């Protein structure tokens, strides 16, 4: 990490639910919460808790200097709604294979 920029990852201990258009896309009690300087907390869910059958891989890829290269998935009415880091940088290796959504409900 660069000076002043931090990322922490821990078990959230909360129930995380993702709903889009009235349909449950994901529900997990095993989410990881990633806190990064300047960003809202992001919940990374194990793929077993995500309705992967509803998602279509996107051609979008982005690069984060702190986390690595992200791949994205879409719904028919929501482009690039979900992302993951297939090969994250060593400092954030815990999120490997987990999926993250822009909007989640936490309880």
UniProtKB/TrEMBL annotation:
InterPro entries per the UniProt record, alphabetical? DUF427, DUF427_sf
Protein name, entry field: DUF427 domain-containing protein
Domain of life, per UniProt, equals Bacteria
Organism of this sequence: Streptomyces naganishii JCM 4654
Q: Where are the transmembrane segments?
A: none
Residue ranges of domain DUF427 in the record = 16-103
Instruction: Name the Pfam families for this protein.
Output: NTP_transf_9
């Amino acid at each position: 990490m660069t000076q002043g920029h931090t990322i922490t990852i821990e078990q959230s201990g909360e129930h995380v639910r993702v709903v889009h258009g009235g349909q449950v896309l994901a529900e997990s009690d095993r989410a990881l919460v990633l806190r990064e300087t300047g960003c809202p907390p992001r919940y990374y869910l194990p793929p077993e808790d995500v309705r992967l059958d509803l998602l279509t891989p996107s051609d979008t890829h982005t690069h984060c200097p702190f986390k690595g290269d992200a791949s994205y998935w879409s719904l028919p009415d929501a482009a690039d709604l979900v992302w993951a880091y297939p090969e994250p940088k060593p400092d954030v290796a815990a999120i490997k294979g987990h999926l993250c959504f822009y909007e989640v409900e936490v309880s």
